Amino acid sequence: MEWTKELLYRQLEEVSNEELAVLKSKVDNCPWRQSFHIQPNTGLLNDPNGFSYFNGEYHLFYQWFPLGPVHGLKYWYHVKSKDLVHWENDGIGVKPNKYYDSHGAYSGSAIEHKNNLYLLYTGNTRDEHWVRHPFQCIAIMGKRGGITKLDTPVISDVPHGYTDHFRDPKVWKVGELFYAIIGAQRSNKTGCVVLYSSPDLFKWTFEGEIRTKMDSFGYMWECPDYFELQNQGVLIFSPQGIEPEGDKYQNIYQSGYVLGKKLDLLQKVMEHGEFIELDRGFDFYAPQTTIDSSGRRLLVGWMGLPEIKYPTDQNGWAHCLTIPRELSVQNGKLIQQPVKELESLRKQEARTKNIINSELKMINSFTGTSYEMICEFKNIDASEFGIEFRTSKKEKTVLTYDVIEKKVILDRTFSGKTIDSPFGTIRKCSQELKQDKIKIHMFVDVSSVEIFINDGEEVITSRIFPKGESTGIRFFASRGSVKLQAVKWDY
Ligand code: FRU
Predict the structure, then answer these.
(1) What is the CATH number of the domain that holds 31?
(2) Helices (H), strands (E): how many in the chain?
(3) By C-alpha distance, which of 94, 142, 149 is closest to 115?
(4) Ligand 1 atom nearest to 63, measured from its CA
(5) Residue 399 and residue 423 in one domain
(6) Is ligand 1 within 6 A of the CB of residue 222?
(7) How many folded domains does the chain comprise?
(8) Is the domain of 428 the same as that of 323?
(9) CA distances from 435 to 183, 205, 331, 452, 489 (A)
(10) ipTM score for this prediction
(11) Based on the domain organization, do 358 and 328 belong to the same domain?
(12) Which residues form the Glycosyl hydrolase family 32 N-terminal domain (predicted)?
């Protein structure tokens, strides 16, 4: 089917129930529906939006095109949860039905104000020449869940010196003032973020660009986020147009952060260290954070990337969100850990202690398609070792630690149905052993894996599309042996 502009920009109301039912049954017949991740009922999910804790619940919205696995007219879809684990679908949050968001309710964030949750987002519009005109807009959610949009946008112009790539406001409050950063492209086609302030979320003043050390780092910065953690400033953004460099920047677009002094809101300067990728896998983009009632800084990302076709496309849907991660700062880096609440998913438990050498080792009860597994490798005298998972005769996804290069390597060459992408099938990242040990904490779902290395020093997130029968787990070591201690819980 060819996705013409007309088909891409249909409102949901224009679509017949029969058409929706056909699409839904295609989706329901997909062998790669996830079991514990947030995924769309039909169509395409992308960025997490409006992540917040409000009125005793976690709220998350996501960019949603309901009608197929393509980037058409975007809605905000609403999900909520009491525990960050079990999410309830709550229907459409923001519909793109006004002149200021006629071509999509694009990404944005949420903040509580006067007992309501304010959603600040980009209204994407296109004129008759298909030129973009972005607006920044507000929708207000009450405690009973109803969401109302304002009649007019709160920011209607792009300031001089920037192009129409101007979107994804992230809002926060300091004292009595609200601040928002927006992802932007300068007229010279480089990416940056700009700062606005507001006393009431309705009237906004353009404060200027935030100066960083990255004057020429890609052509657009999408989905910026700023927060302070353990007395430091963290600026997250997703730059487009970065060339690969060694093991880094291997995906079509990147997602990472700089850490440094707190953002100087008067001078609009951020002093910071190097740009660090948040995730070293194949499928991670446009993350957003929030703070919850216990003061935790939580992050959720889109487990997908733009402009890449995925095997689920043929079943009428694409993508999911990552599990939530809790952030902390250690030695000048962000540490990301799966939220503790996920432990509530643990069912049947299996444990092993073993010596792994040159034979592939399978262990009783270590199988499955949806599980959590923690492996500690020590007494390492092999040159490499690791885990093959979601295996069968023909399929395997392989995680290797290369002792000589000191690198963790994820190989999805033989994971199953291949992803039609020119960006390769192997990802690597450097990682030292810790007291001669390495800890691998993984969350495997029907079509994904999230791997936390050494308690969150690195995270590797990837979609994989194995057959349902590929349930094996095998441990291996070459030229020597390692001692393995592992525990696994079915989910
Ligand atoms: C990032 C992004 C955002 C935009 C949204 C549209 O994936 O391109 O910049 O607001 O997706 O769906």
Answers:
(1) 2.115.10.20
(2) 2, 34
(3) 142
(4) 12
(5) yes
(6) yes
(7) 2
(8) no
(9) 41, 52, 17, 18, 26
(10) 0.99
(11) no
(12) 37-338
Residues 93-119 have pLDDT tens digits of 999 999 999 999 999 999 999 999 999
Domain end call among 314, 340, 366: 340
Domain of 446, CATH number, reads 2.60.120.560
At which of 321, 340, 359 does a domain end?
Answer: 340
- Of 119, 124, 222, which is best to mutate to test ligand 1, by the most ligand atoms within 8 angstroms of its C-beta? 222
Active-site residue list? 47
CA of 299 to the centre of ligand 1 (A): 17
Q: How does pLDDT run across 325-352, given as a tens digit for each residue?
A: 999 999 999 999 999 999 999 999 999 9
Rounded CA-CA distance 195/209 in Å is 6
Q: Which two tokens stand for residue 88?
A: 């309830």
Evaluate: CB of 384 within 6 angstroms of ligand 1: no
**Does the C-beta of 255 come closer than 6 Å to ligand 1?**
no
Per-residue DSSP letter, 316: T
Instruction: For the chain, give the percent of residues with pLDDT over 90.
Output: 98
- Residue 20 shares a structural domain with residue 88: yes
Each residue's pLDDT tens digit, 19-60: 999 999 999 999 999 999 999 999 999 999 999 999 999 999
474 and 387, same structural domain?
yes
Distance 62 CA to ligand 1 centre (A): 10
Which structural domain range is residue 462 located in?
Answer: 346-490
CB-ligand 1 contact for 101 (6 Å cutoff): no
Quick one: which atom of ligand 1 is closest to the CA of 253?
Answer: 7
Residue type, 69: P
| pLDDT at residue 420 greater than cutoff 90 | no
Give me the amino acid identity at 287: P
Residue 1 confidence (pLDDT): 79
Amino acid making up residue 463: R
Instruction: Tell whether 230 and 325 lie within a shared domain.
Output: yes
What is the CA(71)–ligand 1 centre distance, in A? 9
pLDDT band at 153 (very low <50, low <70, confident <90, very high): very high
Q: Are residues 181 and 304 in the same domain?
A: yes
d(CA 451, ligand 1 centre) in Å: 25
- The answer to whether the CB of 306 is under 6 A from ligand 1 is yes
Do 367 and 335 lie in one domain? The reply is: no
Ligand 1 pocket, mutate which of 76, 103, 165, 168 (most atoms under 8 A from CB): 168
